[in-house]
Amino acid sequence: MTFFDLVQTSPADRDVRTGHEGPAGRPLLGHHFADALPELSLPWTAAEAPAPQLLALNEDLAGDLGLDPTALRTSAGLGFLVGGNVPDEATPVAQGYAGHQFGGYSPRLGDGRALLLGELTDCDGHLRDLHLKGSGRTPFARGGDGLAAVGPMLREYVMCEAMHALGIPTTRALAVTATGVTVRREVPLPGAVLARVAASHLRVGSFQYARALEEPDHATLRRLADHAIARHYPTLAEIDDDASRHLALYRSVVTAQAGLIARWMLVGFVHGVMNTDNMTISGETIDYGPCAFLDVYDPVTVFSSIDADGRYAYGNQPTIAEWNLARLAEAMLPLLADEQDRAVEIAVEALGGFREQYAVAWSAGVRDKLGIPEASPEETEPLVEDLFTLISGQADHTQLFRALAHGARGDLAPARDQVLDVAGFDAWAQRWLALGPDGDLMDRDNPVYIPRNHLVEEALAAATAGDLTPFERLGEVLARPFEERAGLERYAEPAPDSFGRYTTFCGT
């Protein structure tokens, strides 16, 4: 079976992006990034997976990509999902990028255990990267073994699909396939490969890597910027002046990231490792390593075992995003003006828009969460500040807002019961109720179900031991996060006291 046997028949005769014809009009796996920016990648192949076994397959996403889910379950399909059975025309590459990791600059990171197989055209005519994680060592691997274990790959699957269901821009998970290889960590673990789909894998670190290349006129950096525009912000290509076009790109990334981080904060998501190589140009969430969701609301919450100083704590995420965008501006300076001081001035002014755009997105989002979208910021800002002061260290972030919807309908007890300062809460609630909150709107905006940390760990432990049932059930629940359903009460509850303090690990 060839790659084309995995692809559903397309109603069109041509791939709308590449113009290439495939058998029966089927789309090809493109190599746009590899062709456009060879300086930023190395051709490579995946390591052998001696006994591939499908653990999870996103059939809806496969259909959106024109892939046949039934064929993906065959031996040829499994070979494709671990990078062994790719079309002859494909050019799998390991992408190169730099990055600031916990504030320290590393000039050469890259896909140490990952491969970009190429690009597929989805049902809407958009290019989507198909990318493997855990597919073996590449020249960027440094000291790593290039492998991944079942647990961390299933974590990324459940987390990114939960984020997608919440309406937050994110990479997607197509499949997780066990490889039959044992991965050596603290203990031996079963190995796996994640097949990930993204608008692209261009990162702030991609621009940092291109900027560091010694070449006339920063030719690769310029091509990278125009490649990013074509991929993510195509209307900007109409701007003839190079400097104006590249400034517009930078502003677009600032806007996308301001909206994204606001969405993270509104649902209580903690990324855990916001290095510059983990910030996309597209504005999608990427790399779900030591991530988790808040139970109790607390701005200083840190889950990652490697974030000893709390750099990437929940409450720091907007500031870190702004810091990362400043690093992107530094990388792009040669594109903004010929004279260094003028380029810095332009970049500082553009970056200055982040805080305002973040504040607008956050303010609008929290008004929706409180059911008062028409209230003015002047009315709501003190109200919101007082609410988070009341609940800090006490109330469950997700449960509280669902409980407040009952308050909007006349029953404040579920929310009041989560706060120690009952008198303070009652005074706050009267101010809020005076604004006429809409409980139905709150139910549409505030999830019942998030990837509760104890449930994620339960599912991953069972899957690692060979039982996928808890993982599959959790995925079914999280696919409809706003719809409260009978019999799923445990999926809406915070962790029991016996779960203790939660710590996550990056899985490398």
Main beta sheet: strand number and arrangement? 5 strands, antiparallel
Our Rg estimate from Cα atoms comes to: 23 Å
Number of helical stretches of at least 4 residues: 19
Count the beta strands. 11
Whole-number count of domains: 3
What is the CA-CA span between the terminal residues? 33 Å
Proportion in β-strands:
5-15%
Q: Give the averaged pLDDT, no decimals.
A: 93
Question: What fraction, in percent, of the residue positions are helical?
Answer: 40-55%
Principal-axis shape equals globular
- As laid out across the biggest beta sheet, the strand order is 2-8-9-7-6
Poorly predicted segments: 9-27
The ordered H/E elements are HEEHHHEEEEEHEEHHHEEHHHHHHHHHHH
Overview of this protein structure:
This protein is of the alpha+beta class and 508 residues long. Helix content is 42%, strand content 12%. The chain has 3 domains: 3-201, no CATH class; 205-363, no CATH class; 371-508, no CATH class. The chain has a 5-stranded antiparallel sheet with strand order 2-8-9-7-6. Strand 6 (114-121) and strand 7 (127-133) form a beta hairpin. Helix 5 crosses helix 17 (453-464) and helix 8 (242-267) runs parallel beside helix 10 (340-351). The longest helix is centred in the middle third of the chain and has 26 residues, at 242-267. The protein is globular, with a radius of gyration of 23 Å.
